[in-house]
Amino acid sequence: MAVVCKPCNTSFESLLCPDLLTCPDSGSDSQLILTSTLASVSWTLSQPLSQDFPLDLISIRMANYTEVNEFILLGLTNLWGLQGFLFVLFLILYMISLLGNGTIVAVVVNEPQLQTPMYFFLGNLSCLDIFYSTVTVPKMLAGFLSGNQAISFAGCLAQLHFFHFLGSSEVMLLAVMAYDCYVAICNPLRYTVVMNQWFCLLLVVITWATGFLHALIHLVMTSQLHFCGPNNVHHFFCDIKPLLRLACSSTSLNLILLNTMTGSLVLALCLLMLLSYLYIISFLLMKVKFQENRKKAFSTCASHVMVVTLYYGTAAITYLCPSLDSMAEEMIVTL
């Protein structure tokens, strides 16, 4: 492993990486800067050991390669003056989300008149939203109070998995709701036949299962990486990109899978929703003669279009846009 003497710029080769070596020009002990990278450490660890290889040198090799067993979430800010304000703000938003989505689920379940495909999907979307926010917000709120944002390696992977599992399922469910809207407006007479109870249940099961498998692939790939420090995650929760920046091993395959899988999923679902809304618009403009009926149909789809635009836009910017090099920009988009 190469080291360089600062005063005389002399290069030394030392396997044991000493902090001090004798400089041949100055004749005195000089502080040396290690110029080796982790790749050289990994190369050293991978070399076959001979019978004459000293056991204490083996210990030094292994000591230089230690796995991280916990991460420190740096959160939204390190200014203590803002911690209390952010705690109150996100607690209020979290409670509003829980109360609103919980009310929707309770009303859909208990009201017989709302036992329709549209409200069935809406109830599932509210459930996903409750779980989705619960994955990240409670840990963030606890960090605001205690200042301790430490999370274990297993806990970090679990948070990553459930965040992407619920997020992917929510994205797919929005596409299913767009298809439901298309059938309701363009084929009203066949709506109850096409969107029957078993077909709606099948769509929801496929949505949750696909989201789970999508997240499971990222979980397995991330768990195979080596993290040897530092362990400071520049985010308020464990996400794929911040963890990849901390990995000591190669992350090229992880990035390829992230871009390919996320890009394909978002593109396919966007195409499905785009076709659905193009059919809806053309149907309303060509076959619906009454202005009142058009406005009613457009108002039904307007809120869904807004949610889809915000959700798919932020997902595409966060995971597909290569220009987001700043973690502050990434956290703002995620929020």
From TrEMBL:
Signal peptide (from-to): none
Membrane protein topology class: Multi-pass membrane protein
Name assigned to this protein: Olfactory receptor 12D2
Protein's UniProt keywords contain Cell membrane: yes
Location in or out of the cell: Cell membrane
GO cellular component: plasma membrane
Alphabetical keyword list: Cell membrane, G-protein coupled receptor, Membrane, Olfaction, Receptor, Sensory transduction, Transducer, Transmembrane, Transmembrane helix
A Pfam family that the UniProt record links to this protein: 7tm_4
Domain of life: Eukaryota
Domain G-protein coupled receptors family 1 profile, chain residue ranges per copy: 100-335
TM region(s), chain numbering: 162-186, 198-217, 265-285, 297-320
GO molecular function, one term: olfactory receptor activity
Main location: membrane
